[in-house]
Amino acid sequence: MTLATEPATLFEPTLAAAQRRLAAVRPADYARSRNHLQGHVTRLSPYLTHGFLGLRDVVQHLSMRHGLGLQDKLLQELGWRAFFQQVWRHEGSGILQSQHLGPLPDRAYAPALPADLCEGRTGVPVIDQAVRTLYATGYLHNHARMWLASYTVHLRKVHWRAGADWMVAHLLDGDLASNHLSWQWVAGTGSSKPYLFNADNVAKYAPAAWHSPGTVIDASYERLDALARQPRDLGPEPGEFVGVAEPALFSEPPDGGFSQADARAVAAQDVWLVHPWALGPVPEGRLPVAVCDADWHARWPWSAARWQFVAARMQALAPVRWFGTTASLLEALKAARSVQGWHNPHLSAAWSDFALATPPPAFSEPTQRCRSFSAYWSRVQILSASSSIQGDLFHE
């Protein structure tokens, strides 16, 4: 089975599947082969994004089972997720705007992807394979995401925000902080320089079907850097190529399973709030109520595969499942005796009406905004060293 034809069922929407994936992690193999598309990566990201597993729990499991410390590559890579979340907490919706100037002004980039790119018929095999894999599986190896983003921004002159919005809709693990800030890192608007790649890099890390000799990326890094600084879309490769249809996106669950919010279902009950980013275990003694916010999804639609992933888990967790506007959901929940659950920045500010708990941090985090991952990780190491003297490496 090739990377491009792995089914969307690659990720079973159950806690048991998430736990099996975590138990199967091999940190030494990860460190050795993580950059290869067929390397030993964890594929934990959908379960982390949607809260099947907490990042802190994953970090502590890996540390205790495998003796990992902050110098180990796997914890460093998980640290990127924590760093992006920290930036989001400080910047809020500012992460959806360029952090600073990239190689060209924002106005030099197109506001939408060209049809050949989003249909996987650019004629550059690595790009077309990445697009097909994204649609078929709802997942892409991080290296493939970087290649796709770099080509989109620097050679096709599409604004990073358009590319990030497109990708996050199709990813099972689509997280606004990790996705959009990664696109900014590639674009050079959230890093010190643009990320570039060439055909040799693809040949080193990808299967043969992805190799792209003789295409626009078959060039030196000096040449690619010059192209990134020229405001011209280089277009697809010459010739006719067969593409694939982009899967439809939905602003509401396509297969039902949800009802309108009804206060009578929760009246005088102690509710545990289940939402798309908090799909972990439900505490005993509380009524689990699953909610999907129509206002949020009108802005951020999902593929059918992602809806199915989330809805299946919600069905397993909660007998009460609502889809409605923010106002209707909040009004119905006011009938409950209490509402508890986990906060997540994907929820709008209106959800602060309920005192949702903030998940404990995975690492000893600095309170100040760090301007780069290296600065963030250095500070984490210093704080963790101080905490470890008190007997807890991951002390809050």
UniProtKB/TrEMBL annotation:
Listed EC numbers: 4.1.99.3
GO terms for biological process, alphabetical: circadian regulation of gene expression; entrainment of circadian clock by photoperiod
UniProt cofactor(s): FAD
Class of this enzyme: lyase
Cofactor: binding comment: Binds 1 FAD per subunit.
Ranges for domain Cryptochrome/DNA photolyase FAD-binding: 75-202
Gene3D superfamilies found in the cross-reference section: 1.25.40.80, DNA Cyclobutane Dipyrimidine Photolyase, subunit A, domain 3
Binding-site positions, FAD: Y30, E77, L78, G79, W80, R81, A82, F83, F84, D173, G174, D175
Example GO molecular function: deoxyribodipyrimidine photo-lyase activity
Transmembrane segments: none
This protein's GO CC annotations: cytoplasm
Keyword vocabulary terms for this entry: Chromophore, FAD, Flavoprotein, Lyase
Family: Belongs to the DNA photolyase family.
Name the UniProt record assigns to this protein: Deoxyribodipyrimidine photo-lyase
Organism of origin: Thiomonas arsenitoxydans (strain DSM 22701 / CIP 110005 / 3As)
